[in-house]
Amino acid sequence: MSWDAVADVAAAVCLIGGALLAFAAGVGVLRFPDLLSRMHAGTKPQVLGLVLVLIGLSLRLRSGSAVWALVLVALFQMLTAPVAAHLVGRAGFRTGKVRRDLLVVDELTAAQERAGSHTGDSDGESDHRRDADGR
Description:
It contains four helices and no strands. By secondary structure, the chain is an all-alpha fold. The longest helix has 31 residues, at 64-94.
């Protein structure tokens, strides 16, 4: 069996696996009951599915410039997906879209309460937002 045949089979496995993970992410986003579960389904398998598809494309294309472009796509996806999921989760938590009865550990509520008690201002204005005059 030649290298080309092995690479083609590996590419097919990666492409099919990535497509199945992307499909599972879509189904999870539609079927899961709450925001955090949907967010998890939308980020974890989607990123792994995309990486598998990119690996499959790299094995199939076998071009240096194309492989480097695909590596950049994977890198930027792995850098931005967790940040976006974190921001969506925090926004959903602050707007009341998260079902707190499903949380096993709720560290954000305690952190928000501590941050609110440290301001010490009756009008809710924090020290770092005051004018230079102290007003």
